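Side project, low priority. Logging it here so it doesn't get lost.
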Amino acid sequence: MDDIDRRIVRELQRDANLSHAALAEKVGASAASVWRRVRALEQEGVLGKTVRLADPAALGRSVAALVGVHLSDTSDQDVVARALEKVEEIEDCWFVAGDESFLIKVRVADVPALE
């Protein structure tokens, strides 16, 4: 990866909908060159699938919080992980070292819903 490839990746992370011509203008290369580079970055696994991000507030979930989940010594982490997968308010979940077993990011409508 050279500097142009890094700029292409950075610009596509900002706006995945950029045309090759617009992307070329931003990174200072020709559209044909950018097209070839984007294809190569996809084939190398540097660039993955394109996704659309939803606005949580527009979905009625304007409050975000990180919540630590402590498990007892007798808890089965796999059972808890499967249960957490079913909670639709959980946006992200990490298995972490330290006092907590899981750190989850939740999005809810308001503070009472969080509580």
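Brief comment: Residues 22 and 31 are 8 Å apart (CA to CA).
Revisit when time allows.
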